Amino acid sequence: MILISTDKGSQQVLKQCEDLCENLNRTRFGVIDCQKNSSDRGRVAERFKSVSSPGDLTGLGINFSALYETFSQEGIERIRTGVTSVPTLLMYHDLRTVFRFLHVFTGRVSTLGGVGVLYIDPTTQDDRTVSAIAQVCDGKITVREDETGKPELRVQGLDTQPTEWTPFSL
Known about the structure:
The chain is of the alpha/beta class and 170 residues long. It has five helices and eight strands, in the order βαββαβααβαβββ. The strands form two sheets. The protein has a five-stranded parallel β-sheet with strand order 3-2-1-4-5, with helices on both faces. Pfam families: DUF7504.
């Protein structure tokens, strides 16, 4: 998995992932963070990359390609990729620029046979922005709490997945 974190350092992301998944395989996990003064730089150069800010879309793309190449050379297939969080990118760039970046990014992930997930909270963005970002995605996963407060999700647009609300746990 390659995770692009626009608002947290790589070590913080790694810790959160390890807290959620006790069997996380660090050799199959990489992070690109956007922290100008990241203390995480140089810890595991081939797995953790940094750019100076979420404004450096070129750096994000270059580092993604480098990590993807590292994983691919190690025989890791169907690499999963996540971007958290798209709204942070929108604080640094206009919608058109972010859309173009995500269009190229998701195209690259798809061409390489990977799976990509983009995080955007639709309650923090206007409908035009959410709709534009949705255009670069094949599907949508909506998360909510049921009437008892337990989390559930619904998948839309991915033919191989059920479309009803489904309970899940982390």
